[in-house]
Design goal:
264 residues; membrane; transmembrane helix; TM_Fragile-X-F-assoc; transmembrane
Length: 264
Amino acid sequence: MAQGSEHPEGGCGGMSAAAPPHCGDEYLGETSRETLLESREARTSGWTHYCCHAVRLLLLSSHGVCILAVSSSLDRLDQASWWLIFLPVWLGDALCVLLIVAAWFASCPYIRLCVMERQPRVGNHPSILTEVLPEIFFAVLGFLFLVLAFTGEYFLCAYLDSEQRGEPRSLPAAATLLGLVALLAACHGALFTHSSPLYLLGGGSLFLTVVLFALTRQASPGARAAAVVPAALAAAGLAAAALLRLKGFLHVLNREERVLRLLE
């Protein structure tokens, strides 16, 4: 008597050559869907870093536009509205707050993937223990930094507006808050050397600007314009630091990478 097959003929688990071809297709489809889902979550590994980098660029750009607005209004500064001159700062700070809050959650899918895999990193993506989570922590501190900076700038704008009306006020509060912002930026640059030029020069120029502004507030308009000199020196210093950094990378970069670095 012939012995029966252990699996029914045509079943997906059978060894028979007559097994339907769609069983393997279903398995491959499930595997491809899992791989696609994993790749989508893994792509979010750098989103927190991108958001934080965008905040730095946007913060510098908005304040640079504000300085240009002040310099273009020097001949009619007595009639200009300081609240409108500071409009790039208000818009830049608002967008920076949105981006830095988004940075707290941008890489959460990748963190969830690492927790499911029980690994600190997936593939060649950054580690959540040494890169992603520390950057989220500093993004929270950066939110507090932005709140201090915005409050100091608000008091500074209120002082300039009240002085224009002949009732100066709020300067001590603005000087204290902006001095604290400068100190925090300098401490960040001293502790984390990968971004030292940005924070040291930015914090130093802000502190010198506050000091010069306080010393020349009763002087002529030409003397008060010297308060923007530290910002110009800081911009020149950042450009020099970028060129020196590029020079150090030239021997390992190809032609396309050198062009991208120069454009940056």
